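Dolichyl-phosphate-mannose-protein mannosyltransferase, Tahibacter amnicola. Tokens?
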Amino acid sequence: MTTGLLLGWVALIALGAAVYIGITGRPRHGDWLSVAGHAPLLGVLACGIAIALVPDATGAQLPGLLGWGLGIALLAAGGVAAWRWRQGAPAIPQTDWRMPWWAWCLVGLLALRFILIIDEAWLRPQFPWDAWQAWAPKAKTWFVTGQSAAYVGPEAWWNDAEGSLRSSQSWRYPELLSRIEFSLAGLAGAWNEAAVGTLWPVWWLGLLLAFAGQWRALGVPPVAIGVATYVLGSLPLLDTHAALAGYADLPLAALLGCSVLAWQRWMEHRDRGQLILAIGLLVLLPMLKFEGAVWALGFAATMALAAVPPRMRWFGMASVVLMVAAAVAVSLLVEVPWLATLRSILSGEAGSHPDVERLAALRAVLSGLFLQENWHLLWAALLGVVVVRWRALSERPAVAWTALYLAGAVVAVLGLFLLTPAGKWAQSNTAVNRLFLQLVPVAVSLGVLLLRDVFTAPAPGDTRPASAAPPPAA
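Tokens:
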């Protein structure tokens, strides 16, 4: 099992690297770190999507199907990558990875942490609530029974005369993560929760490498990258979700953060490949978890507004409102599950809750952000960085748009817990920190991009101010 899983991961990483290069072009200078980070993320996503397109795949057929499928996919993606390799991509700053010894010690601590996390994930079964309630049961049922039957609502299941349908309490949940788990079990050759659980530590590592590579491409100095990567990788709740395999919050946070950083590169370097990558990851967000649809709509609106010239900003805002309304209308028309779930969460009158409950929910949210040991001092430090580096937002429009998006997302979470019945989840500390976890990589990245000019020393003979933005590449 271990050998098959290891070879499977090698094939998935190779596939993901080929997909990344095929989208963005030949890596320049230090962009190989970005390739290494995106490779496992894109590899498992491509495999999960491919399995979803083969509805009749069974557990018995899966090992052989994955072997042939990965081989064909590698050839196809490799061909596209070779074609894009010749085209190249816009140049990025020259790579200089000279760091002080203490910064390399931080990198070493992260490597040690990865070993401990993957050991935890390997030894533990998938027992988190979401794991055995939403995603793992579907994957395990498909694999063990050898029948990829659809999951439907209780009424449809009850009226099924043939008995070929299945139902569960979370039958509406997106199935991409279940398909990925199904694929990993196929690579292992048997349903083994240790093998399936390796997805989360690998996603954690891919998130760190992808962010470090994208930060380098955006001109962040190596020493700042080392510190920022350690800050991101040492966040207690992020580490917990990497070791406690089963939740979808870590994969969702990784995809959202990578999409935002790819868009940053488009805004600053006009790299079309990065824009395609950002949009592609954005489209996949609702396929992982319902919250992904909300973050995707908000980020799509931010991208649309940023693309509109300042003199047409009101027109752009009206277009965004119409776009969101159209998306909601289409979701209602075709009965997209995420909207039905959101409607059930928001059911009830917000005014029916006493002020004391709102205050209790607010205290719980603030405690989760600033007092509990979930993020150490991340959110307090980010507020300080935004205050100190306020002028940098006007000098870096791309960073300002990211700050606007993050602020809107935080306000949306606060509104959810303070104005709807979901406040009870904040008071019991069961959901508030998991929602903020999905935004944490973007928050860390915002702080890094606001501070990058502080750590950048001008080159000899360069009379430009350190805060001057680099010109877009042709």
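Residues 14 and 105 are 29 Å apart (CA to CA).
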